Every structure is written in C-alpha cells, then in structure tokens.
Amino acid sequence: MKLSQSGEFGLIKILQKKIPGISSEVLSGIGDDAAVLKVPDKKILVTSDMLIEGVHFDLSFTTFYQLGYKFLAVNISDILAMGGRPKHFLVSIGIPDKCDSDDICELYSGINHIAGEFGITIVGGDTCASKQGLVLNGTLIGNAGDKTITRSGAKEGDGIFVSDMAGDSAMGLFLLMKIRMHIKRCESGNASITVQGKALACSDVLTLAGKHLMPRPVPLKDTRKVTSMIDISDGLLADLGHICDESNAGAVIHKEKIPLSGELLSVAKSLGRDPFDFALKGGEDYALLFTAPPNYRTNAYRIGEIIKKGRYIIDGNGKRTRFKAEGYEHFK
C-alpha cells in the first residue's frame, strides 16, 4: 500500500502489528503522546519528535532561536498531555553545510530558554552532517504523575475541554507563508501590512505568527478527574478523533463554544476566511484537549460531550453535522 493511501496514522497501525509483544515494564507503548515505562520505584514517560526543514519549518521566516524554542516545546507538550512533568532532553541534529556554529548556538539558546522555564536539563544527543536540510530529533524523558493519562479513557457523558484558544498557530503559519520576510516591516513598528490586498494590523499579525513560531505549552493544574487527554498538534478534529478511536466512543462539539482569539477573528474577517477552518483543522496549537466529568471545575473551555457513537458538530442554529477527523497528516 502506498503511503499516500495509508497516511501517517495508517502506517502507525501497520507498524504496531509488526512490533513484537511488549514487556511488563511497558505500561503504555505505541499510540499515545508518550510511552509509559515502569522502573523499580516509579513510572517515567519517554517521547520523541522530529522537525525537518521544508516539512516542519522554513528558515526564511523562522529564526534559529525560535526554532530551538519550538523544538523543545513540542516535546514538552507530549509529556504534559500524559499528565507528566518533563525532566531530561536529548538533542540529535543533522546539520547541512549552509549552517554554521553561530546558527547552532542560537538554536541552543532557544532550547535553553524554554528548558529553564520548565526545569529541564539537556543531557546529550548526537550530531551529524545532513545532505538535504536541517534535521532535529529530540527525546524527552519525564516523570509520570500520580495518574497517567492516555487517549483511551473517555467515557460517555464526559465533557470535552480545550485548555486554550484554537486556530491561532494555523493562521500564523498562513500569514507567515504569505508575507515571509516582509514580517520585518511589522517588527519595525509599522501599524499595518497588506496581505491579499487587505490591510491587517501588525499587532494581530505578530501575535498570530508568534503563536506558531514559539508555542508555549501549559500544563493543567489538576488532572485528578481527567479521563483522557491529547495535545492539539494535528488539528482539533483529528486529535479528538484519536481520543474517540482509542476510547471507542463518539463526540459532539458545540461550534460556538470553541474559543477563538480576537486576533484570529479580526484577521479571518479581513481576509474573508472562516476562522473555524483554522480552529478545527489547523493544528500546532499545542493546547491540551481532554475529557473529564461534565461538572469538572477548570479554567479550560468546555466545547462538547462524549457520546456512545458518532461524531457531530452542532452550530449556533442547532444544526447537527457529522465531522471527519480532518487535520494535518504526513504522506497524505
């Protein structure tokens, strides 16, 4: 089967069948944001993420500092999505000829910034030459909390919550791809910039671009009643689809309850775009999407409920429409 047919998640299911039976020390393996391993007196979490130039980032509008920050941030998000605490980071880099030592030092400055915020130590890795472009691979080890949270615990009647605004990163990427180096005009203090013939406030553009370039994952303060969780990396619909698949459940989303930022609403209106397309399918928000009892007290936004089967969006007029797990998927 061609990868364009199976897609990233189909390939993962194929590989799961190829992997030999796991040992009793592996409490949760392939299929979640991080693996859960049992060591003599505690549980640890291990996750790995790759960022590849031309696929995950574009150096024409991303600084090495921003890239380093995001590189660790996306790994941190996986540990937080399991209810854990990130601790130790290994960095492996494939470096092309166009990069010099100053570039790599700037990359590490970005890594060090967010590592310091979360109390993470960088403990090793590997470096090698790359013939194509810059390749980053990170492995983050964390401590599991008192309760390990997977994607498979959602129950009928649970509320569906999201911890932050949705769609900002996707719109930020859209704008960066349109204006590229012209973003420096916004950074220079200009009040507005023209995109597709429309004048956009530079403050909105910079805020949205920043959400894409330097996402900041934030842990939930209390996860004791959380039944399932995932970070929004591929898109709200796609990632909710993973929870439904693993929990053998359905979901209802109330469209008007999805939190959208003022910046996203303003820019989408100016460009004649539907902000919900970015919020539902865009991805890379690295907010936490989770389920919990409907009376769960939290600062997160409740956007729907888990049902026995079926996947629906209800709009402001009460119209119910089936949704698919649409979002970003490698190979498709």
Features:
single chain; 332 residues; alpha+beta; Phosphoribosyl-aminoimidazole Synthetase, Chain A, domain 2; 2 domains; 7-stranded mixed β-sheet; 6-stranded mixed β-sheet; 9 helices; 15 strands
Please provide a brief summary of the model.
The protein is of the alpha+beta class. The protein has helices at residues 3-18, 64-81, 101-118, 168-179, 183-187, 202-213, 236-247, 262-271, 275-281, and strands at 26-28, 35-39, 42-52, 85-95, 121-129, 135-143, 159-162, 192-195, 198-201, 228-231, 250-254, 288-292, 301-307, 311-314, 320-322. Helix 3 (101-118) links the parallel strand 4 and strand 5.
Largest sheet: 7 strands, mixed
The best one-word shape is globular
Biggest sheet strand line-up: 10-12-7-13-11-14-15
Looking at CATH, the homologous superfamily of the largest domain is PurM-like C-terminal domain
Report the CATH architecture of the largest domain. Alpha-Beta Complex
Which CATH class of the largest domain?
A: Alpha Beta
| Count of all domains | 2
The tally of strands reads 15
CATH fold label of the largest domain: Phosphoribosyl-aminoimidazole Synthetase, Chain A, domain 2
What's the pLDDT, averaged over the residues?
89
- What fraction strand? 25-35%
Radius of gyration: 20 Å
The total of helices stands at: 9
Distance between the termini: 13 Å
